[in-house]
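Chapter review: from sequence to fold.
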Amino acid sequence: MKTCEPKALRYRFLHIPARLTTSGRRRHLRLPETWPWTQAAVAAFTAVMAIPLLT
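The token string follows.
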């Protein structure tokens, strides 16, 4: 995914077959194991969630 063009990257992330669930103030991203970009999506979601909230 590092070498993807912006259009392809946008397409892949907008068409993620996932569900975002919450449970006890925690967010969980449910992805199918057979989806080709599962690892990249999990890494991106983890990086975004690691950013501290500004209050």
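Two observations follow directly from the output. The helical segments are 6-14, 38-49. The two ends are 32 Å apart (CA to CA).
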